[in-house]
Structures are given as structure tokens and as C-alpha cells.
Records
---
Amino acid sequence: MRTLYHNWLSPHSRKVRIVLGEKKLAFDLEVEKTWERREGFLRLNPAGEVPVLVEANGTAISGSQVISEYLDESHPTPPLMGAGPLERAEVRRLCQWFDEKFDREVTVNLVGEKIMKRFLGLGSPDSTAIRAGKANINHHLAYIGYLVERRTWLAGDHLTLADITAAAHVSCVDYLGDVPWANFALAKDWYARIKSRPSFRSLLQDHIPGAPPPRHYQDLDF
Amino acid sequence: MRTLYHNWLSPHSRKVRIVLGEKKLAFDLEVEKTWERREGFLRLNPAGEVPVLVEANGTAISGSQVISEYLDESHPTPPLMGAGPLERAEVRRLCQWFDEKFDREVTVNLVGEKIMKRFLGLGSPDSTAIRAGKANINHHLAYIGYLVERRTWLAGDHLTLADITAAAHVSCVDYLGDVPWANFALAKDWYARIKSRPSFRSLLQDHIPGAPPPRHYQDLDF
């Protein structure tokens, strides 16, 4: 059986969980406290970060984009990267948009400050960072709306890794109740479509002790 | 003719210049002052970052990894991504290592502080950041040495995008004279091999007004 080393509110880990679900590949989940820098884990991934996927034969693959592309190449059905070089370039551009830009502008400011800091005993959340995160997410939700108004899914006519990446990030912020859904109907409609997929179900059952999600987090009709 | 929008000491731009050179694809170079947030450029790449490649037919592709994979798919000779899902995963893991980890730990601290800050009139360099960058690069040079001791190139028996990505980052720091080559013979041997490739030549001729490179920067026998 393959094993995915992950953290609960790591959007990068969530991205791989959804990909594994879409590909209908069975896997065990192992929580890795990356901040403890466990030696056995550093041997799997010298960068010391989750997610890491370990195949049944022991092969270890690190990084959410790397793992996702590897899974799409080795299990091509359903295809998640688009057809042809240009479509794949658009899928990859949007993956990077959310994995880097959204991560830096939103996830780190909200999930980082509200959850990770408390977990790691790094003091109280920085209210300036939280304000920045709450302001920044508006631009990203507007961008999602702009894209799905012109296309069925973020990168084109089919669900791709771009949607999965964006939804993984949004889901972490939604766990905190910090997504202003009321102002972004198009983005909300897109997220409702992803949220109702079987591959998303396990994410909605995540429950961090001492930091329960808001009531609407699990609700498919939010 | 295709056009590459770039900045001189952007390792991400340099990476694409080398890939275009390895693929023997002709291109025009356009310097983009991304900090001016020019409207025409933001239409090409809403993230506002270089590199952006614009094909002769007007198609724009953004981001160094995205452009590189696009070029490798549309111009497969010579192959730069490795053969098979596992080899490609290793190439991509190392690309990410240098594009994110090296960038954050070394490039931003050295090139960002010494060159970009001065360019943008953001005050004098932060000596703590520079000390951190100079300490961090040692680990990365040791890692390069560890890899090439076991393999011919970083990801295996052939030159791949992993080598190109690493060399693009290292070349920017080398322009500042901040690579401690004397202590890292294996990494130095690897860099000498890349530096002598025709695809690298134009990088060695870069010359930023007011910030000339050290004498050894262009020297193939450094």
C-alpha cells in the first residue's frame, strides 16, 4: 500500500489527497510533524516538507506538483493535466499561481498565523498579517470568478489539477471560516462543484482537535 | 520570432534562456522592469513576473518551469525532462529545490539585497540577510557535490532541466562573486561543465551597468 505523509491544513498535502481520490488510488495517511525534523523523514525528503508519497516498493516522491504530475503520468485516467503542450502550460501556470502566489498572499497569513503559530507555540497571531490575508483573498476569489465565467473549469472545459490546487488552498482557509463567499457567487458555485466530488469527501471530515471548523465547512450546500 | 521578457539577474529568466539555447530556438530578449507594473505586460502575465515567453503567433506563457516544460513538450530534442515518470519526478523535485529553496535561502538574500534593492532605491543591503545567504549557499554546494558524486549530472546520466535550473541560480550568485568555489571541488567541476556549453554563453556576456561581474565570472577555467 502507498503512504502519503501529510499535515492536516497543508494545502499541498490536500492537493495530493484529492488527486489520489480522483485517480481512485488507495493510500494510507500518516501525519508528519515536519517541525520535529525526524531523521527518517529527512531521508525520504531532504527538504523536510510534506507531502511525500511513498509507493509500496519504497520509492519516495516529494512535493505536491511533482507527486501530482507523477501520478498523472503513471495513472493517466482520468487525465488531470490537459491535452497538448499549451493546455498543460495553462494548467501548470494556475497550479503555480495558487501554490505560490495564493500561498504567500493568503494561506501563510491566515492558516499560518491562526493555526500553525499556535501549534508550534510561536506566540499570538499577527493581526497585520491576518488583515493582509483577508484583503488578499478577495483578489483571488475574483480571479477564480473571472476564469470560470469564461471557461467551465479554471483551465478549460474539464476539471484539471488547476482546480484541485486552487480548491485545496481555498479549503484550508474555509476551515477557518475566512472565505467571504457571499461576495463571490461565481467562485462559490465553482467551489460547490468541487466540494461535492467523492475525492473531496475525506478533506471535509478533517477535524483538528481544539480548532473545529465552522458549521458550513462540511456542508455541500453552504 | 519569439520574444522572452526577462531581467538580467533573474535566475528564472536565465533558466529559460539556457533551455532555448539547448533546444537551438531563436528568440529576442526584452528587458521588463516588472516593478513598474506595465499594463501591457500584466495582460501577458497577470502575476506580473518574468520570465514570459511570447510565441510568434502571440501566445504568451509565464513562469520558468511552465515555459521550460512547454518547450520540452513542443520541441522534444534534446530531451531535458528525463525518461519515464520516476526520472521526471526527480528532475522536477530538483527544479523545485533550486527555484524555491535555493531562491529563498540564497538568491533573495544575496542578489535581492545587493542588486535589486539598489536598483529599486529600497535602501542599503541588510547585512544579516547577506550573512545568511553566504552561510546557506554552502549547504547547497555540498548537496550538488553529493549528487554529482553519485550521478553524472544532478538528476542522472544526462543533462536535464535540474542542472539548468541549478546553474541558472548559481550563475546569478557567481556574478556577485559570492560562490565559495575553493571549498567545493565537485560542484565546481559540475558548474565548469555547464558553463562551457554554447547555451550558457550569452549569460556570461551579461553586464549590468554600474555592477560589473568579477573577472572569473566569464572565465571557463575559473
Note: The first strand of chain A starts at residue 2 and ends at 6.
---
Amino acid sequence: MAEVAYVLSRMMMPDDANGLGNVHGGEVLKLMEEAGHIVATRHCNAGNYNNSCSPRVAVLARVEQMDFLKPMFISEVAHVTAEITYVSQQSIEVKINVYAENILKNDQRFTNRGILWYVAVKAVASTEYAVSTVPPLTYKDPQDEEDGRKRFEFQKRDRQASKELYKLYESGQPLVNDWNGSGIVADSTEKYTVKRSQSTLIHSILPSDCYSSKFSTGGSVMKLMDTAGALSAIRHSKTPCVTASIDAINFHHPMRQSNVITISGRVTFTSAKSMEVEVIVITEDLSTGKKHFSCSAFFNFVSVDSSGRVLPVPPLVLKTDSEKKRFESGKQRYSARKQRRLSRETTKN
Amino acid sequence: MAEVAYVLSRMMMPDDANGLGNVHGGEVLKLMEEAGHIVATRHCNAGNYNNSCSPRVAVLARVEQMDFLKPMFISEVAHVTAEITYVSQQSIEVKINVYAENILKNDQRFTNRGILWYVAVKAVASTEYAVSTVPPLTYKDPQDEEDGRKRFEFQKRDRQASKELYKLYESGQPLVNDWNGSGIVADSTEKYTVKRSQSTLIHSILPSDCYSSKFSTGGSVMKLMDTAGALSAIRHSKTPCVTASIDAINFHHPMRQSNVITISGRVTFTSAKSMEVEVIVITEDLSTGKKHFSCSAFFNFVSVDSSGRVLPVPPLVLKTDSEKKRFESGKQRYSARKQRRLSRETTKN
Amino acid sequence: MAEVAYVLSRMMMPDDANGLGNVHGGEVLKLMEEAGHIVATRHCNAGNYNNSCSPRVAVLARVEQMDFLKPMFISEVAHVTAEITYVSQQSIEVKINVYAENILKNDQRFTNRGILWYVAVKAVASTEYAVSTVPPLTYKDPQDEEDGRKRFEFQKRDRQASKELYKLYESGQPLVNDWNGSGIVADSTEKYTVKRSQSTLIHSILPSDCYSSKFSTGGSVMKLMDTAGALSAIRHSKTPCVTASIDAINFHHPMRQSNVITISGRVTFTSAKSMEVEVIVITEDLSTGKKHFSCSAFFNFVSVDSSGRVLPVPPLVLKTDSEKKRFESGKQRYSARKQRRLSRETTKN
């Protein structure tokens, strides 16, 4: 395995801020994805693999569950490391760490870690791409390869399971009957209901959202997902909200320049101090009119006051059977997340 | 007619601000144009019209007179609806509404409405585009089509009339003798004169200003026009200024990636509480050196103090005959605008 | 010589700010380079030179030493003039002036001047470019041509001399043994050492950093160089810092869309009131894995308090022989700069 080195380092500027004046969680996701894209693309073309004259590019396929450990502030320098930890025939696993540095105080903090999976594609015509094989990885220890294979199998199963919504949508069924897609709920007497929390962002993918392959950067989509999620959380709590963690995201349909994407969020579960928001992304190709399900994910938010102190969250008011069912699933995910955090802390000690 | 739904929804971020800290009027224009571009391009390619293998893109041809009804603030969510209301053989009329939502207060306001006309173009070579026909629209009521045709004929006449400046410029005549094109007037004793108010912005069109067709987004040009207009208004009033309304804009020559555009403004008329600024746009192709007249428009501004209260405007000092003539035309446009506003209010009651 | 006119005019917006809230020095460099690119590209294609069907584009080759005379503030309008002053067979010298205008106060200041050299390239295949000849310039006075030729010869020699680092790197030698490339120094007891001041930014070149030729704009690279330099200066002084001047920059290897560039800085010399930072740029092509030395330069900074008053600078602690050697060279450059400034002031009187 190659030595871990900084892959990206960038100063956080005023337009990277969220409403509280700190660095937008979505900007951190963009940095992580860009770093992953760089090391994965680098690996795909190492030693001019296979003498291919058409270079490969890495496209984001999946993000593993991730916690936002600490906030980052404007005018700090973000440093990102990225290390390839496993390679299958067509996919690449990248482990990413983010550090924030206050250059005035010579102070640095570990703020984020994440696991991202990429697939390699290569151009087969002027605008067509096909999935390509990936050069093998040399492991320091056979055990590393064995552990990697287990993570690969796990994500493959989880990815398959996550295709449920994708298949529903592609088969022409309405994704969710009671999801109106509108950002404004006319009836303001609706308080703390799921309907009240619904948010939609709609964005047309511009050249500045894309790599030169004209695929949207995974990061710019995740930033929009984070923003849509935060809108739902803020609508529910009526306070500023910060991203605490993200459940795994699987990308099922590519998003490309000129596509219009619709990002919708709704609160699915609340605990005493957190809100879970389901976010889904639908992609439309304007030149054919066809729409596809691109991805969905659960984002977890905490409500804070203006100085960043955590506030209690009003309980979600459940009206329909499907809302109650989703709340129960949310409760299970909440317990699983808690379990995972505890076991990680135990491992460290 | 298709059901009206949100076409764009976007959170207003710190870099969308103007000098007062509110959302820049030009950003609102960009949102409206992007929404119009999406629904018009969608319509052009509906059902893979005409089995054309080359998809069509909608390019902004004209904006009807529009009022800025209410300001929008940073961290609000802008929601934009767009509805196709008439289609001729080659043009598409889109009606656009903008709403601002304060998600903390569950408060929403109607802030802008506008009518935009698009033409469809399709690629005929790698960088050449030709105007294309447009699929027909199905109307709910024959009267809707008849009303649309009247609006179409009206805009056609008005568009023709607006070609005067275009023809003057293309025939090689200097557009305006006394327009020095400079933003800095050396003689600071010039107070409240037309010359003193002259402003010029010069911008080279970058990939991030363009759709993937490499045509500039109409919105980024209108944002620059709004900025140049505001500079002239501020030069005259010496106070912050906000855009109150825009007269119809006709686009006569396309603006494309790598072109350099020169946007010039000058105050043409002042009433007790408003300033009219004429803004023109000249486009230069660096690879051939050729220059063309792209468009012109009248922007209307009010002078405000730092808390947004309307202030009286110093009267414009007129020095030359052509300045006096333009002031008289401005007075007529001012009355026409007032009339239009009154009749609209009467219609509503 | 053509008449000098404004080539760019742009309002400074909130996202143009540095940490002090003034306009980022790097944004000024971007404006200057864009203006130079425009007049040089315009000249290359004048009269459809040589009947070439493939238009030429101007690529930044060198920046002469430049002083930042005065700061610029957000909401001021920047006006940039650019004049071609000499043309050799393949290069173009452009003289650039920058003015800041406060439109509320009718106040304008001369803030920057610079000399930029461009070479013309033209496409020879879909992504390949070759250096092209340039149409001749007509001089008002034969003396102007003669003076230009002297500047051309001087820059050619200086450019050649600056190739030392380039050749070292391209021959596979580590550029500098003691440059660890990391932005975070774990050992916080290191104070005022060269090692403590080391900074690295890593950036992947996106479409919005490029001209349509897909070459990076020289300005976006210089802005990153200025930022990396400022980081080193701030790490050393623990105060805000502003750019005072830049020594000549020679560009030896082009930077293109999708390349990853690593920009590293370290303090090389300190006087009582200034810091000299050496900045180098390494370019990596992800599709081949090849790395090249693109450019290096010395940036000079002063330490200021939050109201912009100049502060004394802590002396640099020198630990290795090569650090001492570089400090001595820095001292010589410092004296040369002082001499140059004095002689310029004498010339003016």
C-alpha cells in the first residue's frame, strides 16, 4: 500500500460557510470526494495500465456510513489524506481523513473520516462511457487483502439491498405516495408532521459541477443532499442544525452535465436529541425527458443554538401508517448507529 | 398546459449577496432564466420530437418588462415555477414566478414574476447552431392559444422596433457619440450629469457562465447588466440602490464561451424617487476580432438608505441635446410603466 | 501602438475577500492575467493572421517583478488596462495597470502595475497544442521597438537562469531534500524555523479554472501561489499578512484541466518588516501519472494588525546550511528590490 500523503489542501473561504458561519458540511463532503477521485483515478492509470490509449476516470459508486467528528471554521486550512485500501476487479475502496488547521494558533484537529468506493470508467465514444477493469493492488500483508474482500462483499450485499427504491422508481411506480415534491406547505397549522418537514431542491448540473469527463462530481451532489437534509431538519426544529452523521449512500444512476436533479428530504425519525432525514435524488435528462433514480441516503442532524450548543428536538408527529413504519425502521437504524459508535470507542481503548 | 410545479429550488448563500447583504437582483434574474431554460429545453425534446438525433437547446431571446416586488434574503430558499404558456413555430413563451421561503419562520413571499421568450437551436456542426422548429403545445382552452398569439405578435413588433440600435451599430456607426466607455471620470466637479453616471463592466465569458452548448446563460449576462445599471444609479445618487423594475430586453446576437462582453450603463431619466438607466451589451469574438451589438435594456432603480428606506433622487443635469431627448423618452416610459402598474392593480381588485 | 483602453472592469464581491475582508491579492493577479490574455489573444488573431482556420490562444509564460502599491476593497470597481508593448516572433509583452474606484466617493486609486509575457499556441489536434508565430506589432517610434527588444533579451536570459530548479526536478532529483511537503508540523516547539513555515496547497484543476482551450488560467495558479505564500508568512508571524511584491515568475510547464497541482511555500528570508516566501508548483497528469515542475517564485509579505498597520517580523531561525545559503540569496534579492524601488522613485521625480 502506498504511503499516506496529503491529497488536497485548501483554505476555507467565506463562500464555504453555512448559515452559522462555520464550514458547510457539504463542502467537507466535496473535499473528501475530490480527494478520493484523485487517488482512484491515479491508480486506474498507473503505469499506463493495459496500454490503453483512453484514460480511465474514477466515478463515485458508494459512501460508507460516516460521522462528522468536529466542526471546521472559515480561514482554517483543510488537509485531506486518501489511501487505497482495497481493489476488486472493477471497484476501488479509498479511506479518507480530514484535518483542520488553524494557522494562527498552530492547532490541528481530526474532523472527518470516511470510506468511499469508486468504479473506473473509460470513454468508448465521444460521450459514452463503459465500466473498465482496474489494475490490482499490492498489499503489505495478505490479511489486509482478506479484510478488504470482506468489506467488499458486505458493501455489495448492502448495495444490492438498497436497490429496492431504485427498482420501484424505474418500474414506473410513484416512489412515495405522500411525497408531494413541493418545498412549501401551504397549511401552516401542520406542526412537527413529516409533511411539514418535506424539502425539495432542484438544480441543473453546470460545467462547474463536473469533472472534465462531464460526470457530476459526487461531492457537489452530496453537498446538495446535505443542504436538502438540513432544510428538513430546520423546518422541523425551527433552529439551526448541523450534520452529525450520514448512513451509507449508493449511487445507482450517473448524473451528468446538463441533467436536472431533484433532491428531496423528509424527517423520518426523531430521538430526544437527533433527527434522521431521508434524502433521495432523481435525475432527468432534458434531451430525452427520461428520469432515473440516482441515490438515496439517511442524514442525521442535531439541533443547535447560535453558539453551537445542542438543543432538544420536538418529537415527530406521525399521521399515516407508512410514516409509522418508516419511524420504526429509523429507530432500528438509530440503535445500530449507537451500537457502532460504542463498539468503535471500545476498540480504540 | 402542464401542471405548474417547482422547476428550481435553491438556498441563497453568502456569495449571492449584494452590497446591502440582501440577495443580488441579478441572482434572481439568473434563477428565472435557468428555470425558463429548463422547461423550454424539456419541451423542445419532448417525445424525442421529429426523431432528431441532435437534441435541441433553448436560448433566451427576450425578457418582458418585469417588477421586483419584494427583496429576498440570504439563507432563504428560493422556489421558482415555470410554465410554458405559448409556442409559435420557433419560439416558446415561459411564465415564471419566484417565491422566497424563510424556513425558520415557515413564512413565504411572492417576490418576482416574469415572462421569458426562448428560441430552440440545434447543433449542425461541432460549434455551429441553427434555429430549429419546436413541437406544438396543447392548450386547455382555444382562448389561451389566441391570447398567446396576440402576445407573440406584440413582442415580435416590439423586438423589431428595438433593432434600431442594433442596426446602427452593425452598420459601423458609433452607437452613441458621447458615451466614453470609461468608468472613471477624471473631472470630479461633474455632479449629477449623465457623463458622471457612465459605468462600464468588461467580462470574458468563462465555462462557468455557460450551458453545455457553450452559449452564455442569459442569466449571467442579465446579472452583469443589473450590476452595471446599479453602478450608474449609485454614481448618480451616492447611496445604495435597489432594482425596482426592468423594461423588455431583446437579445439580438448570441454570446458564447470565450467572447469578451462590454456592458455599459448611463442614467437617462430621473423622477422624484427613481432613476432609469440604459444598459447596452457589445460582444467581441477574440478569434476573429469582430464585435456585435447583443442587447440593450432600461433598468429602473430606487435609492435607499442602509436600512432599505426609499430616499429622494437628485435631478439629472442635462447638458447636450441628445441627453434632453433621451430624458423626454424616459419620461414617457416612466408614465407608461406607472399606467401599467395601476391597470394591473385595478385588474386584481 | 494601440490606444490604451479598459480591458476588464469588474465589481469586487464578498467572495473576492481575503481573511482581513479586503480584496485578496490573488484576485488582483487573476484580473491582470485575464486582461493580458484578452489583449494578447486579440492581437494573435488580428486580421485573421495567416488565414489560419485554427485560432490562436495566448498562454502566460512569464510575469515580471511587481509591487502591490495599494489595497483594494470589497464593493469597489476594479478597472484594468492592458497594452501590448513588444512582440517577438513567438512572444507578446503586455503592460497592465489596475485601478480601484470607490463609486460612492468618486475616488480612484492606482493599485497595481505589471508586465506579463505570453506565447501564442494553436490547436494541432483535438487536445494537442503547438507554439505559433505572432503577427508583428507596429511601433509609434523605432526607439520603442529597440527598448522592447532589450526587455525581451533580458527576460530570455532570466528565464533561462530560472530553469535550474526545473532541470533538477525533471532529471528526477528531489527538488529540495528538507521540504517535507506537509502543512502540519507535529512538533509545535518548532518556532520561527523554516520547517515551521512550510505550507502546501493541493488543488485539482476544474473547468472553472480554465480558458476554453482547457489550459488553466495563469491567474488561478497565481492566486493559489499567493495563498500558499501567505500561509507560510502567517505561520511565521502569527498575524494577518498582505502581499507587498512578487519577483519574476517563469512558467516552464503548462497546467491543464484535470491536472492536480501541488503548491508549496516556505519562508526563505526575513528583514525587520518583511518576509520572503519561495513558492513552487508541481503539476501531475492523473491519466499518465507524470509530474512536472511548472514554476516557482518569491513572494514578499508584510505582517499587519487587524487595522492594517505594519508590524515587526520575528527573525527567521536558521538550522541547516542550505537554509543559511538561501537566506543569504534572499538578502541579496531584498537589497536589489530596495535598489529598484529607489531608482524608480528617483526616475519619477
Note: The CA atoms of residues 276 and 300 of chain A lie 5 Å apart.
---
Amino acid sequence: MLMNDVITVVDLVATAVFAISGALAAAQGRHDILGFILFGTITGIGGGTLRDLLLGTDAVFWFTRTEYLWICVAASVATWFMAPLFDSISRVLLWADAVGLALFSVLGAVKALQFDAPPIVAVGMGVMTATFGSMIRDTLLNKEPVLLGPEIYVSAALLGAASYTALHPFTEWALPISIALAFGLRACAILFDLRLPKYGPAENDQS
Amino acid sequence: MLMNDVITVVDLVATAVFAISGALAAAQGRHDILGFILFGTITGIGGGTLRDLLLGTDAVFWFTRTEYLWICVAASVATWFMAPLFDSISRVLLWADAVGLALFSVLGAVKALQFDAPPIVAVGMGVMTATFGSMIRDTLLNKEPVLLGPEIYVSAALLGAASYTALHPFTEWALPISIALAFGLRACAILFDLRLPKYGPAENDQS
Amino acid sequence: MLMNDVITVVDLVATAVFAISGALAAAQGRHDILGFILFGTITGIGGGTLRDLLLGTDAVFWFTRTEYLWICVAASVATWFMAPLFDSISRVLLWADAVGLALFSVLGAVKALQFDAPPIVAVGMGVMTATFGSMIRDTLLNKEPVLLGPEIYVSAALLGAASYTALHPFTEWALPISIALAFGLRACAILFDLRLPKYGPAENDQS
């Protein structure tokens, strides 16, 4: 069916984009090419794998659909050769991560709704699919997780997943609209340094 | 059935208490309100989610019983407004964590035994359910995991899970007794700084 | 059947060896005996547990086969008493980890192939089974993950899993040959400080 084809293509693109972000993080840590492939693959399929485990699917999606693995390997290897061409790896990583975030937050909700998930579960799955891969990537590489950074990040994933969950019964354009909303919010957050108010009161005790 | 109702209530209380501890940890890291909700939810349902994955249940418990998610969100938001009222967040966090530890160590064993788990598996599931949520919370927030702290922590979870596993065939009071034992041991550990002997010999090499 | 008996024995040995490496890591962190058991068990069964979750087996292997848990407990307790006898804990840990790596990389592929996994999935499962336990161990103990160390590590797991996947239709000796290849490569890497070329270009931006 046409809609499912669109979703599959978007899913593969999101996987490749996140794999590139994982490989770029490996570049920052100056790892070897297998490190690129390892972090590219973990970041690319990590979120969707957790989603499948929580939904209780039989086996994870990449068990039968190995093209997801190949695309992670290919994107990671390509990054190894392309990364030197970029002036600022951290800037490219930031934007690759933003694109992946927007795509996966909506796709996570799509997949959960296909399993008849209640709305709050669909939204939660969207946020989780979008953030889990980068969370492992950053934890393993001992970087400050990007989702704990000061700018709006989780909010963008939340907006993407929630708007798709709210809109999909009403319009066929729910997919592109919610992706655009999530990406737009994250892009604004990066460009204009948008942030939610932090927890404020003076904190006197350590740990 | 009455017993199951009691278990459900205790389970919801434990989830709320752990969610509060997660939100308090987010307060220490000065995150925004979505950070509170994220860490509250991860800490509140993390242990039970891992338990369900390992037991091979069809889908995780909060897929159909969304009240667990709502209670995490509500507890996290409440913590955002209440936290400034406390003198010492780290002290409240310590005790909330102790209550959650006692409740979840026993509930993890209860659920595993409902799946006919052998005793060692039931005990292990109890320890895991009680410690996994706080383990992720502390790892993601880059804090020293509380379960690696010097005072007795894993021992208290072990006592709760093991005493329930041992007592439940013999008495209907197994649930409150084991919760009291686990909480009592952890409370004594906090108050009197109880600890097991550390590994002692001089260690000359680094890592 | 004979072959399955051999695999079971090798699997138990690998579990014990990885449990010892987990307990030794706890010794370096000067934890108490429950910390030894906790990290020994996580490291011993962590990789195989993730593999089972991803393969979508009903319950994890140690739910019914509790001997895997007992062997982790026994190996951890034994390490508590034996560790002081070693001159250099980090050296023993390095070699125990190398043996576990070689055994589990091949066994992960064996189990995946029993589930009719495609070759790339079998190789990926082998690498994951071999590296996941030590990855959690090091992350929780806040050590630099050994798989991010400079010498060849992931490559050895890859060699073990790939050579078994390639050889097993052709020879009954696929199991010992691939284990020897993986261990040989890792041993050479430790002894002769073999490493793959790191990502090279000057990197001007921080994170």
C-alpha cells in the first residue's frame, strides 16, 4: 500500500541519518572504522529496537529486514570517508540528529498506533524511539547526552509524536505535518537557543 | 481478588514514589519540566519494564494499564512544584528511594512467582526490579549510582525479595513482612551508616 | 546430542569466565561481596540476555536453566577469595575478558543461526553477545569501556562470529576454529598492541 511504502522509505532515511550521527560521534571520539560501524548501527536501530521489545513483537524488525543493518553499515563507512570534508563535525552532527529526531518521533508513534496503542503510549513510544538511540550513543561515548542539553529537545520529539497521534484520524497529511512541526521546533531551538525554564530554587546540597 | 487489589495499590504507590525520586534527581541536575517527567517516568516504570521483558510477557504492563504512565507524569509534575518546599532535596530523594526499593524488591518477586519462576529467579527479579530504575536514572544523570554507594543497598533489596520468596507459601502476611524487613534494613543502613566489608587487599594497578 | 552438549559446556565456561571478569572489575572498584555477585552476574548473563530478547524467545534462558545464575554467583564468590592472590588484577581481568570475548562471539552466532537468522544478523548477534556484558559492566562502574580501548577488540568478536557463520555449513570444526581465531586475534592485540587506524583528520571543535 502506498502509505506503508512512504513510511518504509522515511524509516530507512531516518535510520541512515541517525547512523551518520552515530558515526560522527565516533569521529569526535577518534575511533577506528569498526567503532564507526558499531556506533552508527547502535544509534540507527537502537530506538526502533527498544520500541519493538516494548511492543512485544516476535523478533526485532531488523531480524528479517536486514536492509536496516546494511544501511547502517553503509552510512557509517560513508561517514568515515566524508567526515574530513566537513568544517565542523559537531555542527553536522547537531543537524543530522535533528532530522533523525523529527522522523523517528513520528515513526515511533505510527508503529505504536499500528499495534492499537492508547494515545499516551503512542506518544511515549515516539519520544522513546527518537531519543533512545542518541541516549545510548552519548552514554557509551561518555558525552553529555544531547537530550539533557539546555535547548528544547525532548519537547520537539513530544510535539512530533503528539501531533501525529492527534492528527492521523483526520488527515492523510498527518505524517509530513508532524515531521515538519518536530523539525521546525528543534531547528528553532538550535538557531535561536530556545529553552524551557529550568528548575529554579537555590539548591544547597550536593548530590 | 483482594490480595491482587492490595498488590496493585502497593505497585502504584511504589511507582509514584520512584517517579518522585526520579524527578528529584532531575531537580538536582536543574532540568526543565519535561526533564522531570522523563526521568520520573523512566525511574518509575524502568524496573518493572525490564522485569516484563525478561519474563517474556506479551507487551509491557503499561501498554494496556496506562494509569502507570499517568501516575508517573502526575508525580513528576507535582515534584516540580513541591521540590522548592524541601530543605534538602538529597535527603528526601534518599528516603523516597528507600521506600521504592522496599516495595519494588518484593513486588518484583511477587510478579516472577506468578510466572512460576524458580526461587533464585524470583529473588533476582526482585533485586532487578528494585534497582534498575534508579540505576538508569543515575547513569543518565551522570551521578554515582546509589546502588554502588557505600551503605547497604542491594542487600536490602535482596532481603525483601528473598524473605517474600521464602515466606509466601506459609503466611498471608508475607507481603507486609518482607516490605518491612527490606525498608527496615535500608533505613538502618542510612541512619547508622551500615555497610558490608569492602574488598580489602591493597590494589596497586589502576584499571 | 553431542554437539549441543559441547555448546552447553562451552557456554557455561564462557559465563563463568565473564562472571569472573565482572567480579574483578568490582574488586578494582573496591565493592562489597554483593557488588561482586551483582557485577559478576550482570557481566556473565548480560550478553546472552540481550541476545534472547532480540531473538524474541519466550523467556530468557536463565529463567528455566538456573545453573547459569548459580555459576555466576559461585564464580563471583570464588573471585572474592581468590583475587588477593593475584599480583595484578587488571592483567587477569584483561585475559579473562579475552577468553569470554572469544567464546561468546561464536556462541552468539551459534544461537542466532539456530533461529535461522540471516548471516549479517548472526554476525551482529555474536558481536553483541560478546560485548554487551562488558559494556554494561564498564558503564556502571564508570570505567572506560574496554571495547572503546585502543587495541583491536570488536574486530576479534567480529572475526569469531563471522568465521563461524561462514564455516559452519562446511565443517564440524567450525566451533573450535572460530573460537581460536577470535582469541588469537585478541591475544595478539593485547601482546603486540595491534590497533586499527583511528579516524585521523584534525578535529577543531569540542563535542
Note: Chain C is about 70% helix and 0% strand.
